[in-house]
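Hey L., structure's done. Input below.
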Amino acid sequence: MTTLILIIGLIILTAGAELLVRGASRIAGKLGLSSLVIGLTVVAFGTSAPELAVSVKAALSGQGGISLGNIVGSNIFNVAAILGIAAMICPLAVNLDIIKRDMPIMLGASLLFVFFVRSSGRLDRWEGLILFALILIYVFWTVRRAGTEKTNLVVTETVSTTPTNYSLPLSIFLTLAGLGMLLFGAKLFVDSAVSIARLLGWSEAAIGLTIVAAGTSLPELATSVVASLRRQTDMAIGNVVGSNIFNLLCIGGVSGSLSSIDSGGLGWIDLGAMLLTSLLLLPLMRTGFRLNRIEGGLLFGAFLFYLWLIWP
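Output:
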């Protein structure tokens, strides 16, 4: 029964994220944002919404290992598993803007997050406020630079099959409905995941780094795989890089601001894997400004090796 509730919660989370992405991407499209900017902001936030809902719920419930483990595990899964799979399906061309602007931000956010967590063994409220302030600055800067980019609304076909004549009120309704489903699905998912962890004798960090992280990252996986199949490589890579930035700054910021979070068993292997996979991605992107199938296989192999290291 607990496993069934976990699956139901995950289904509700995924459906809620889909509605949120449909509504938000349509709103962004009406505002004339480019494909790369939508991938780095609206879609990245929408596909990270399950992580946000789960981590906030876990933080408020005093389950710090799940809250922080979900953030770290999701970032590892996004880079190593999702980009690895997407690149193996179709080599991904890399936008130079991602290498010059967004990748350094993702690496800097990763280093700051690790410093905060390891310096005291917890994420304090003032640290959460700093992270949240940084995500506000990032979003403002990204949207502002969108004014210099050519508008490309084809991206909406990557993340949604909704008709192009969706009205603004209906798009807003879809966004709010998706948010409500996320909140409800998060409660079911976290409660059942904790129960399973206790039955198996796993730590909260282990369950957050594996089951919860992979489960809440399914929207990113679906979005990037579909983008890869449709040759929307800006969306495939931008979605992952943007999601990782949102995970660290927005989810870490919101969760930490609401309640100081104990690391709950999160160790150097996990934090180091997050840093190393992010660092590995940069030189791979610079080799011909594309991720080919061999490099995708290397990333996915790194993910399997990490799972082998941490498996309880």
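The first helix runs from residue 2 to 30. Residues 150-164 have pLDDT under 50 and may be disordered.

-- N.
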